[in-house]
Amino acid sequence: MIKTALLGATLALAPLTVAAQQVTLTAETTTPGSTPHYIDSTLAAVLDSTGVATLQITEGATLTNSVQAVAEGRLDMAPAPLILPFLLSRGIGPYSGVGPDKGAELAANLRVIFFNAGSAQMLGYYNSNPIEDIRDMSGKRIWNGPPRGAALTSGRAMIQLLTGLKDGEGYEGVQSAWPDTVPTITGGGVDAWTIPEGLPSGREIAIAAAGGITIHDVPSDLLASKLGQQILKAPGHAPYSVPIEEFRNAYAGNDITVVVDDDSFDSFATAFGQIVPAGMDEQLVYDIVTAFLEGEERFLTGSPRGPFTLLSFGDIDGVSQGACGAVQIKMHPGAIRAYEAAGHTIADCLRP
Length: 352
What we know:
Helix content: 25-40%
Number of strands: 14
Structural class: alpha/beta
Mean pLDDT: 91
Distance between the termini: 33 Å
Largest sheet: 11 strands, mixed
Number of helices: 15
Order of helices and strands: EHHEHEHEHHEEHEEHEHEHHEHEEHHEH
């Protein structure tokens, strides 16, 4: 567990009204090096420095469990792949044990305070064992995600889009827990891998340290196909496009080749919403989101991946963020008020 430190002597000299207003909130996030972890750790620093809150963060969490914990009121905040509230609302997938009625009740207790889509699905392989045609991976062993959850769903969708093959029907999907991803791949147990990655990805750099790798986006014709458009609009996904030179520059100095068919790296992103319980105090959420919006420069410059986190600092139309379609999650009233106070618009479909 990491805990943002109080500002010590600095806060001791601050006005008592500021110190009295600061509250302690609990949060869970992903492993260090991931986009959600960067966002959450930066948010913790921003909230602490502005005196809004102290954020106690547990790292390496399984977000499937974190989403349910927020919905049940046992946790104050978590980054949520938007497919998880969708699945919870129906009591299916990892929430099948909850059931549809209880799942709908729990999902109704979730509110988003801001969005991001910083992890794009990609395909990789070692240059020493190349995939000659990414549209033909019959008989290959492909790491496509952890044993369950949003990433596995996206990984299976990626291979089906590229090849038309389903996991266990034409290729062998290999899954492992997130901490075991790099050793599973570098150990030579798979022919290729597909992972939703932030930019730049410390995981891909670690994989490339064992030998040169090649990364592919989704070819334009496949992304524009009927299946491609269905995947782009599927629960938990959002469009993703970065100019190819920016993408390649992010990996400069590493033995990583990036292959695209045009002038941009195009794929589908894992759409995220930062969630809190619906009953969280409106003024507290307003203060949190106000600090978030005012901290834009810190989020964008605090890490090489900052410019590529695709955080929602402007108008929110819902569709671009992966909501207002199959995913019907709402924003917290305090967050809406903060965005509007900063001069931004919020789509009606996101209002409770």
